[in-house]
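Hey, I'm writing a tutorial for new members on how sequence and structure tokens pair up, and I'd like a real worked example in the thread rather than a made-up one. If someone can provide the structure for the chain below, I'll link this post from the tutorial.
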Amino acid sequence: MNHLEKAKKLFTSGYNCAQSVFGAFDDITKIPLETSLKLASSFGGGMGGLRSTCGAVTGMFMVIGCVCGYNTTENHSEKVEHYAKVRKLAEEFQNKNKSLQCRELLSSLSENLKQNPSIRTKEYYKVRPCLKFVLDAVEILDKELSKFE
């Protein structure tokens, strides 16, 4: 199953945007799916329902951190290079979707947005554009990660 299919399956099974993106790349991050889902669980709803940075975006950042993040303070240029990659991913997502912010991405639903997660029903999936954001994040990541192959 490719990353797009896996992310779609995760999201339509009820996982949040961050879990769906991060979990879809467990083959790349080498983090077991159960652990990936727990690790990303706090980032749904724009970070715990705060409607801040979109969970698909934070999931994308977590994957790129696993692949090419830094883990030492001895080489400042690694940090600079990594932040540049993060900003590039963010820019691509923003170019496609006009925002990185959950509340703005879901502005058509703003009066119905709550901090607590909604129950996933057929109606939820009909009105929420979140799956598009998840798939956009996965496509952006797949393109970026293909440069490392």
